[in-house]
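Q: Hi! First time doing this. I have a protein sequence and I read that you can turn it into a structure. Is that right? Here it is:
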Amino acid sequence: MGKLLCIAIGSAITLSAQAHDKIGEKDGLTGYGFLGVSTSSMETNTTATIGGNDVSNKSINSLTSSPDSQGYGGIVPAFGLTYTFAGSRTQIFGGTELEDFLSQDSTLGLGVRQGIGSLGNLRLSLLAGTGNEVWEDPYVVNANRSKTDRKSSGLRLGWEHIFQSDFAVTLTSRKIELDDELSGTALGLTTAQSKLLDREGKQKKIDLSYRWKPNANHLLVPTISAIDYDLDGEAMAMQGAQFELNYAYLGVQGWEFIANGLLGSLESDKSNPIYGTKQDLDRMGVSLGATYKEPFGLKDWKASTTLNYGKEDSNIDFYDTSLKSLTVGMLYSF
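A: Yes, that's right. Below is the predicted 3D structure, encoded as structure tokens:
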């Protein structure tokens, strides 16, 4: 413990802490803050650190085996702030956002939301990665690998409450950069072969979601996504689709129970020069959360627990990934 995990913890916070994204009728500041502790276990051969915590082995002895499990823990902060200008139907907002549950890739966002009458709301935000490290050359065997910073920046566009409905569409585009991209150098690959393994480039995603609240006790938000990892290395570039379902049960006084699931599939563009085949990747994840309102009589506070499990199963075992985590903490909303 003791290290800071600068990550959001996903839909459990979002559904618990915030009202829906309709623009309020009063001027002022609203938001939430979360502080907790987390214990996690991750399997990955490519990511080196998350929030300063080591999540994979510095040295590996095989390019054909699935990764070993690495345990870590830390302090987990998350926050979201919104200031509303009711007269102009404008909101300024910012906070932490979880971009990818399985890789724990997260960003800080700052943006504006504008109501446009019966058309709904338009949203624009700037994104900056919170900063993780990957291996310069993940394919070094029987020697220590070196870490390098992975940075991201991008833009998110959204259209919410489309024509006064509960549909929303969101487009996210991020640029991914590594300080040192040396994939395949240790294997003596040609320049053209090494280029196929380049992990820099753009990540694009389109989400179509619908918020359905059949009654006061149930809330469901299904989301269908098209994903395009438009990376410079054509063997690392992947396209595919993903389905997510977020569910909240609010029928027990003083409690909120939340379950989230995702299923997805991705396929690479070109054959990997190391393995001689294209990569196919299946993704799945489950998150279960519970919050207890006003613990110890604390007004506007909630005690929160979240359990996460997810995996990426690749036809190339080296790229398999899994995550298990348990987070407990306190949430304050205003």
